[in-house]
Design a protein that fits this description.
With 348 residues, this protein is an alpha+beta fold. The protein is 39% helix and 10% strand. The chain is built from 16 helices and 8 strands. It has helices at 2-11, 28-37, 46-49, 51-55, 57-60, 101-122, 141-148, 194-198, 216-222, 229-235, 244-247, 274-278, 282-288, 299-313, 319-323, 331-347; strands at 16-20, 66-73, 91-92, 130-133, 152-153, 159-160, 168-175, 238-240. Strands 1-2-7-4 form a 4-stranded antiparallel β-sheet, with helices on both faces. A two-stranded parallel ribbon has the order 3-8. A two-stranded antiparallel ribbon has the order 5-6. The longest helix has 22 residues, at 101-122. The radius of gyration is 21 Å and the shape is elongated.
Length: 348
């Protein structure tokens, strides 16, 4: 069954498919609790609210007997750090340059789960049942993926595969079927600390530990309020997420460009001009980012991020567009615009 499952997963576009036992992450509860108690979760209150279910898959679904972990490569065609040098361009994290991965991967998971149930019932497992999850459910995908052998959590806490590098979307299928678990993957980071040294905001207190409140991905996506001044210069022109720690990982020398065209980068999101996006109104924002992860920001936080990038650009030609946001109805936008005006004036 597992051999056929892996082949079917490959046919549907997944690059990795392995199985973990529901009790395979015994250290997760303690580590999650320490992360939350240290205040490293920031605005992500949902981590504490869902902590019992997140720490143990059997709390989320008591009937689960095996967890099928899937990995899908979304590797970029070019170095994602190139755009950072063009300060008048807005930089969007690689994973958000195409169609929303939640929709794409959930569709594939449902197809694979349906196939698994049909195969099991043909084999006499009449009570076979499944549940599929991708990112939005209280599932600790990275520890489970490591336990299943898809890769290991590197010093930047992201999953790394020896075959595919670190550009991986993860999804899971919980099932009542008694599938045998695969062997976990060992750690292959060695003495390397490229990801730790590359972080613009020093978001790693120690190897294998992340302080989300210092992470640019958190600050530009999850954080609800004004971005602390101490991080604004380091953010540069990153307006949605950050790829630095992933991009510098040496294991990416084996990475390949993603093969799912639905997840391919849209040309208009690869090196957009800050000026063009500053001119967008709310309707234009919603139209531009329809069916992409960026839309989840909402208009105010999108403009907050964009104005910080404008302030860091040193491009005096953006001053009029920035000034138009001073006095905006959203205090978040107004404050960012006033800061950006000050930065642009100082750079002249």
């Amino acid at each position: 069954m597992k051999t056929k499952l892996a082949a079917r997963a490959r046919d549907l576009g997944f690059d990795l498919c392995r199985v973990a036992a529901p009790d395979a992450i015994p250290l997760a509860p303690e580590r999650l609790r320490a992360f939350i108690e240290a205040g490293r979760a920031g605005d992500m209150a949902w981590l504490a609210e869902t902590e019992p279910r997140r720490a143990d898959p059997r709390v989320l679904w008591p009937d689960v007997r095996a967890i099928v972990m899937l990995g899908l490569n979304y590797g970029p065609e070019r170095d994602p750090l190139e755009t950072l040098a063009d300060r008048s361009a807005a930089n969007v994290s690689v994973y958000a340059r195409g169609r929303d991965y939640h929709e794409v991967i959930k569709g594939k998971l449902k197809q694979l789960a349906g196939w698994l149930v049909a195969e099991a019932r043909r084999a006499g497992e009449a009570d076979a049942d499944v549940k599929v999850f991708v990112d939005t459910a209280p599932v600790m995908e990275k520890p489970l993926a490591e336990a299943a052998g898809l890769g290991w959590q590197g010093k930047h806490t992201n999953l790394v595969s020896r075959e595919l590098g670190s550009w991986l979307f993860l999804g899971s299928i919980f099932t009542t079927l008694p599938l045998a678990p695969d062997a976990p993957e060992g750690d292959h980071c060695g003495s390397c600390r490229a990801c730790l040294d590359a972080c613009p905001t020093d978001a790693f207190p120690a190897p294998y530990q992340l302080d989300a409140t210092r992470c640019i991905s958190y600050l530009t996506i999850e954080h609800q309020g004004a971005i602390p001044h101490e991080f604004r210069k380091a953010i540069g022109n990153r307006i949605f997420g950050c790829d630095d720690c992933l991009a510098v990982c040496p294991w990416n020398k084996w990475a390949q460009a993603g093969r799912d065209m639905k997840l391919a980068a849209k040309p208009e999101l690869e090196a957009p001009r800050i000026a063009d996006w500053l001119a967008l109104d709310d309707a234009g924002f919603r139209a531009t980012f329809a069916n992409t992860p960026v839309r989840r920001l909402g208009y105010a936080r999108f403009k907050r991020n964009l104005l910080i990038a404008a302030g860091n650009s040193g491009d005096a030609a953006l001053a009029a567009l920035v000034r138009a946001h001073v006095g905006a109805p959203s205090p978040l936008v107004d404050e960012a615009a006033r800061w950006a005006m000050g930065e642009l004036a100082a750079s002249v």
